[in-house]
Structure formats: structure tokens, C-alpha cells
Amino acid sequence: MRRPGLVLAVLWLVVLAVAAFAPAVLAPGDPLDGVPAEKLTGPSGAHWFGTDQLGRDLFTRVVHGTGLTLRGAVVAVALALVLGSLLGLVAGTAGRVVDDVLMRGVDVLLAIPSLLLSLSVVAALGFGTVNVAIAVGLASVASIARVMRSEVLRVRGSAYVEAAYSYGARPAGVLLRHVLPNASGPVVALAALELGGAVLAISALSFLGFGEPPPAPEWGALVAGGRDYLRTAWWLTTLPGLTIALSVLSANTLSRALDARFGAHR
């Protein structure tokens, strides 16, 4: 096996997809039901991740919380991908004045820390996973826009694009058939990287209390809920935190593999 890390990352992402869309397959229990007599029980064969202060099975809550966090991350990346690609495409093809105006706006967004920008958007939109996803997505638009613009400028100077123009192809046709497909590879790799960043950002905002209200088992909320029990019940924060870390690392590993693949074809 040449790349075991990539294989493990893909397998982990597949498990996350199953947990997000069919959580009962991995954890058939109710994440809101608890047995008070079993509260703060450590990890065991009966409770893989232990139980929380209300006797709820932590593994079940982590699995059922995957959908909230992961679907929010996918929405954030999709929003950033659409808006960022559109901005980069327009900036790379419209001309100097439009390019300068759009890129100066992108520079302003890049100058603002992404978490601070997300907090500002959430404060304007309100709490909840959807609003958090929109905030995280808007904070990621600038990086995707810059990559798309640079790729569009690179592809526009290629010989096959000039040949298409010489044969009388329309600019819109050249843009859709030649420029956009050949410029999208690095953007896709960046989107995979942004997926890991979105999981981390959504978990951070959920940790701060901007996500779904309790008892929704968002990953960040689970970590926050175990802060008061660090000395007596380490698993309440450690195991959800490890789940977040593995998800981010898996997305980053996939992103590096995609970047190496598309970079080799440039």
C-alpha cells in the first residue's frame, strides 16, 4: 500500500458521511436519552466514549452530532466555492479595472481574521448551525477567489486557449469549455482543505455558544459541555476533540493528495 495515510483519511471521511446521513447505522440509540444512575461513567464496552453528566451515551451523541457539524461545513464550503469561484472568474477575465476593484475587496477580507469575520456575520444573522455555516463560508470566499483568479490568468495564456480564439470560438464558449475546467483543479483541492477548516471553525463557534442550542449534540458544544469535568471525566472533552482533530487531518490529507494530482497535470 503506497499511501496508507490517504486510505485511512478517505475511510474516516466515509464513516463521517455515514454518521451524518444515517447515524442510526452506527449508533441506534437516542442521543437525548440518559440513565442518571450511569452518569459520568468512563469508556467501556457498553459505552465506548463513556457517558456525560446526565447519563447519556457520549458515542451516540458524537455520532448524531456529526450531521450538524459536517452538513454545516459542507454548506460553508459550497457557499465559499460558488462565490469565490465566481469572483475569481470575473476578476481574471473582465479586465484591469474590474480586477483591481474585486481583488482590493478580497484583500480587505483576507486582512480580517476569519474567526473574527465569522463572529461578526453570526452576530448580524443570529445563532444556529445554518447561520454559522453561512458566516464560515463568507469568511472563506477570499482565499478561493484568489486561487481561482490566478488559475484563470494562467489558463488564459495557454496555447490551446489562443488556438480556440484563432478558430473563431466565442469568448463565453472558451471560458466554459477550456478556461473553467482547466482552472478548477487547484480550487477543488483548496475546497477540500477549506472543508477541514470549516469543521474546525464551526466547532469553535459552537464551542462559544453560537451554534444550535442545547441539547443539540454539536461537536463544539460537546467539548464545551465537558469543560467543568476535565479533572473527573476527561473523556467528555478529549474524545469529541479527537473526533474533530481526526476529521480536520483527514480533510487536509485529502487536500494534499488532490493538490499533488492536479499540480502534476499543470
Automatic annotation (TrEMBL):
Chief location category: membrane
Name of the protein in question: Peptide ABC transporter permease
Keyword annotations: Cell membrane, Membrane, Transmembrane, Transmembrane helix, Transport
CDD domains reported in the protein's UniProt record: TM_PBP2
PANTHER family: OLIGOPEPTIDE TRANSPORT SYSTEM PERMEASE PROTEIN APPC, PEPTIDE ABC TRANSPORTER PERMEASE PROTEIN
Gene Ontology terms: biological process: transmembrane transport
Family: Belongs to the binding-protein-dependent transport system permease family.
Cellular component terms (Gene Ontology): plasma membrane
Domain ABC transmembrane type-1: 66-255
Species: Cellulomonas cellasea DSM 20118
Subcellular location: Cell membrane
Entry-linked SUPFAM superfamilies: MetI-like
Pfam families noted in UniProt: BPD_transp_1 (PF00528)
Entry's transmembrane regions: 73-94, 106-126, 187-210, 232-251
Origin organism lineage: Bacteria, Bacillati, Actinomycetota, Actinomycetes, Micrococcales
Membrane topology of this protein: Multi-pass membrane protein
